[in-house]
Every structure is written in structure tokens, then in C-alpha cells.
Amino acid sequence: MTSLFDPIHFGNIAAANRIAMAPLTRNRAGPGQVPNALMTTYYEQRATAGLIVSEATQISPEGQGYLDTPGIYSPEQIAGWHRVTDAVHAKNGKIVLQLWHVGRISHVSLQPNGQPPVSSTARRAGSKTFTAKGFEDVSEPRALRLDEMPRIIADYRHAARNAIEAGFDGVEVHCANGYLLEQFLRDSINDRTDLYGGPRENRTRLPLEVMNAIIAEIGAGRTGLRLSPVTPVNDAKQDSDAQGLFNYFVEQLTPLKLAFVHIIEGATGGARDVASFDYAALRSRFKTGNEHGAWIVNNGYTRAMAIEAVTSGAADMVAFGKLFISNPDLVKRLRLNLPLTALNSDSLYGGGAVGYTDYPSLDLVPAGKIQDERVPAHSI
Q1: pLDDT digits (tens, 9 = 90+) for 168-226
Q2: C-alpha to C-alpha distance for 253 and 211, rounded to whole angstroms
Q3: CATH homologous superfamily of 8-373
Q4: Mind listing the pLDDT tens digit for each residue in 319-366?
């Protein structure tokens, strides 16, 4: 019987266990959006995860939407990330880079030359972002022109190549949480009337073109994708037929033989039952034509839920987010069912080591005391 703590091989990636670290924006990159020594320590501390998915990383200056988030488009950023991947690999960990373009979830103060953010639409999102002044309303975007689509695709492709140059084991394309690619997917956001709008065949066009371009550049075995079919974050209102849309999208993705799909179940960081959705039906479409690709689930999983998901075959891996922030040795704590450190929510975004690299790892507990002192691991 497969266990949460068993190794797994998917695509070109061999993971020591089935516990993934979800991407977590922490806003601690240095000048020029360059990963720094503090970030290197942070990821190194968490290298026992079967797979680390890095924090969302903008593919271009235009892709940035939050203060002090890292990029993957300059030589300095590549070098900074290489120090991170070297540290993780030295601990026998595996790490992929999440490729990110925020689309309309940005502010003019974060955009090159103060330009408007770009999106599938010219409608402003009812959302906020993190700027030098704190949390501010996002700016009004402009809709991308048809002649700009090749540039967007090329930015993703170039970023994927840079990620491999930086030593990553692969990439995860961010197609979730109301950012650019999901702004094309959902008809609640996408109001275009051209080849990239209207029926789902058109709304999935840009994400599929991006995935094909990345696969052509670095190979399917090093390429994954993150989806959030019903999350309402960043003013991503429900699609008129979310099940039909994502069923179709995954059916188109399956022949590409992706290394993995990473699915957010419910509202990101919130209720799992925010909207009705059949995730098993989605997984069956992926597995039918890609039996070697990993299905990674995320959002509010407890230890017991994660063990059941993998044991039952409902998932191949389970990703934890906030629990990995406050428990750098989460894999050990879950394996031994040891107490978990609570999260300091005041230090999530920006700052230094406090609430970032100062969370303690537990010393090994004497075997005779594990049974008496263990505390069930609950999600935060």
C-alpha cells in the first residue's frame, strides 16, 4: 500500500517522499528582484520536502504584481536562484520554480515606466496588492493585443530556460489564483471577442500555447502546472461552467505528458467547499492518458487527510503551504506525528529573518517518548 512517506518518480523528478511544499509568496527578494542569502537559508531549511515548489517568480518585469518578489529574467536573478538550488540539492532535495505573470493583479508603481498592467480584459479587479505603501487597490489594466501574444509566450519559454540554467529540477506554470493565465481561462474575467475569448476552446488557447512552448524548450518531464478551478481569490469570480472548462482543459493537457498537475481544492487558503466541483473527475482525465504524471493536491490538508489521499490513490502527493512556513522540518513532524509550531501571521510578507528563517526544527525525540508525547498534526 502506497504511503505519504514513500518515494515517487514522476517525469524527470525522483522525490524522496510524497509531501510537497506549496509555493509561498514571502516578499523578501533583494534589489533587482534578486534572490538573496536569506532566501537560500529558507529553502535549504525545508529541503526534506519531497518536492519544493518555489514562491511565485515573475517571468518578466511586466509580470510583477507585488513588492520584493523575485524574478527569473536577469543574469543576477539566475545566479541568485542558483545559490538556492545548490543549497537544496546539497540536502538531497528537489525544487521546481513557479513561473508567474500576475496580469491585472498589479499596480502601476510596480510596472516598468509606470505602465498599466496587462490582462485578458481592460476591467480592473476588485483586489489589492502589496506595494511600497502597503496594501493598495490594483490598477486598471489594458487588454493584451493579438500581436502581443507571441511576446508573452516567449517570456514564459525564456523564463523556463532560465530556470533550468539556475539549477531547478523543473518548473510549475502558475495558471491559478486569478493571475494572467487564469484571467484568460475564466469567462467571468475574459470578455474578449477574438481568438483568445468566447468559447472555452479560445479561452484555453494561451495557456495551452504557453505549455507547448515550455515543453518544446525544457521537456514535458520537467514541466508542471498549477490550477485552482473554483477559488475566488483576486476577484476571480466563478466561471459559468467551471467543471466543463477545466475538464476540457485537462483533456487537452493530458497528451502533453506533463510531469505533474498541482490542484488547489476550494478557495486558496480558505474553505474547501466554496463551490461544488468534482476533482476526481478532473484527475481521471489526467491519469487516463498520463499514468506517470503526478496529481498533487493542496489546500487545508491535515496529516490524516493527506495520508488517506495518498493511501486511497486519490492523489500522488499532497502539498502543504502555511505548515511549511512555521515547520521547516514538517516531513519529520508528520512522519512521527509530532507537535506543530503555530504560524506568526504578522511576518508573512516582507521583513527579514523573523518569521522566516527563525522557526525551530525539533530535535529528534527519543523513540520511547514518541507514542506518549505525540500530538495530532492539524492544518493551520
Answers
A1: 999 999 999 999 999 999 999 999 999 999 999 999 999 999 999 999 999 999 999 99
A2: 8
A3: Aldolase class I (3.20.20.70)
A4: 999 999 999 999 999 999 999 999 999 999 999 999 999 999 987 444
First to last CA, the chain: 28
- The answer to whether 129 and 65 have CB atoms below 8 angstroms apart is yes
Annotated active-site residue 179? The verdict is yes
Are 63 and 18 contacting, i.e. CB atoms less than 8 angstroms apart?
Answer: no
Sketch the domain layout of the chain as residue ranges. Answer: 8-373
Question: Which one from 42, 66, 73, 179 is the annotated catalytic residue?
Answer: 179
Separation of CA 347 from chain center:
20
d(CA 4, CA 46): 17
Q: How long a stretch of residues is the chain?
A: 380
- Grid coordinates representing 100 are 508567474
The pTM of this model reads: 0.95
Residue 243, class by beta-carbon neighbours within 10 Å (0-12 exposed, 13-18 middle, 19+ buried)? middle
